[in-house]
Design a protein that fits this description.
This protein is α/β, with parallel strands linked by helices. It is 42% helix and 19% strand. It has helices at 47-55, 82-96, 108-119, 138-154, 156-166, 176-185, 189-200, 208-212, 231-240, 254-257, 260-274, and strands at 5-14, 17-26, 32-36, 59-63, 101-106, 124-130, 218-222, 244-248. InterPro entries: AB_hydrolase_1, AB_hydrolase_fold, AB_hydrolase_sf.
């Protein structure tokens, strides 16, 4: 089923000045869902899931957080933190006039969703958490992102050279996920260093005590054999959240390349949060 898609933007005041954030809306109505991307990735990574949710009558928004995708990318590490990202999602809800939403995300986006639930619990209808980064991911996270920070800070020509090579490649001629990889590689060294620095030296997620106080329904998806996003973290989070259900993906690639099962789980979960009936589909739609 085809759904309407439109791009929007809004502005917020930060320590670096007035910054612009860009988002895409899918569908319409009052049953809002906000999806947040992974670290350094663009909002377009959630386009397939957003379309699946919107096709069932939900009003879905994907957003590029500050320093990501087509939003502004200030080179000041002080403007980047999980709390700041959570505040940006709340500002997006304010801009859209959405009193509440199901908030969901992958990796960074999963942790940001938890931040929103702590900062503004009254705005959260439910949580879709894929690949949270918690206690069991500390060592792998350091190994993965310390070299990125080092390269961006001390060898910026390497990051900028990759950008010059990847940016001209038309995204329309490559497979969808290859395009997402190209978008992720499209980084400015100064901004990328600021993003990683800000997150590296800030808190990764709300504390266990704060997570246990999140009472909204939650769908937690964990992946096997993923050292940066251990399934143990997802299982632990599902135990901590009082109203969580845990779904284990068959692999770290399932939701990317064979998404039907997990899309259905996310659609059914979001619909239950809003208690909205399934939209009837016309034959052939």
């Amino acid at each position: 089923m085809l759904v309407s898609e439109r791009i929007g933007q809004f502005f917020l005041e930060t320590d670096s000045g007035r910054d612009r954030l860009e988002y895409t809306e899918y569908g319409a109505g009052d049953a809002w869902v906000v999806l947040v991307h992974g670290q350094l990735m663009p909002r377009r990574m959630h386009q397939p899931l957003a379309r699946a949710l919107a096709a069932d009558g939900l009003h879905v928004v994907t957003v590029d957080l500050l320093g990501h995708g087509r939003s502004d990318r200030p080179a000041d590490p002080l403007v980047y933190s999980m709390t700041a990202f959570g505040e940006q999602v709340i500002a997006l809800l304010d801009h859209l006039g959405a009193p509440q939403a199901v908030i969901g995300g992958t990796s960074l986006g999963a942790n940001v969703s938890l931040e929103v639930a702590v900062l503004a619990p009254e705005r959260v209808k439910g949580l879709i958490i894929e690949m949270p980064v918690l206690d069991n991911a500390v060592e792998a996270g350091i190994l993965a992102f310390a070299p990125i920070l080092f390269a961006a800070r001390f060898l910026p020509f390497t990051v900028n050279a990759v950008r010059r090579v990847t940016r001209p490649i038309p995204r329309g001629i490559v497979p969808f996920w290859a395009g997402i990889v190209l978008d992720t590689l499209d980084q400015r060294a100064d901004a990328m260093a600021a993003v990683v620095h800000g997150l590296f030296f800030g808190r990764v997620a709300p504390s266990s005590k704060q997570r246990r106080a999140i009472t909204v329904p939650a769908l937690v998806v964990g992946h096997p054999a993923d050292p940066i996003h251990p399934a143990a973290d997802a299982a632990m989070l599902a135990e901590e959240l009082p109203n969580a259900e845990f779904v284990q993906a068959r692999s770290i690639l399932e939701w990317r390349f064979r998404p039907e099962r997990l899309d259905r789980a996310a659609v059914d979960f979001a619909r239950r949060c809003w208690k909205s009936p399934r939209r009837s589909r016309r034959a052939g739609a």
